[in-house]
């Protein structure tokens, strides 16, 4: 029992190194430069990042995000294990709260010794994040948060009728 708790604490500490949540828009250069500086000497042949930017469309002023961290942590841990099995790591930063047009709300990264592994992993990771991560999106219109239901995906096993 004690070992299990220690392992859980270690996993939480490790996860904070790879998964970062920020209030408001992301400081893109700070995050991506920190990842590069941290991992450039780790013998990864590929360090790939994806930066998501809020688009100015549908008369929105921005987006707002709510995150359910326990499910996000489990989802992220599953991806980290998948990456580790390929001798790679995944990195992620996401916003909580309001992010206005032309600002970043999401950054994903992959470090891998192999270019092909990194390219495939970043694609799969970003697409699965969009489909599965427990992050609720709201449009900001006239300073009001409006749930973006038409652009949301139900989380498997959640809800009253699951």
TrEMBL record:
SUPFAM superfamilies to which the protein is assigned, alphabetical: Molybdopterin synthase subunit MoaE
Keywords: Molybdenum cofactor biosynthesis, Transferase
UniProt keyword Iron present: no
Catalyzed chemical reaction(s): 2 [molybdopterin-synthase sulfur-carrier protein]-C-terminal-Gly-aminoethanethioate + cyclic pyranopterin phosphate + H2O = molybdopterin + 2 [molybdopterin-synthase sulfur-carrier protein]-C-terminal Gly-Gly + 2 H(+)
Pathway annotation from the record: Cofactor biosynthesis; molybdopterin biosynthesis
Listed Pfam families: MoaE (PF02391)
One of the protein's GO biological processes: Mo-molybdopterin cofactor biosynthetic process
EC number: 2.8.1.12
Highest taxon in the source lineage: Bacteria
GO molecular function: molybdopterin synthase activity
Assembly: Heterotetramer of 2 MoaD subunits and 2 MoaE subunits. Also stable as homodimer. The enzyme changes between these two forms during catalysis.
Family: Belongs to the MoaE family.
Protein name: Molybdopterin synthase catalytic subunit
Native species: Arcobacter acticola
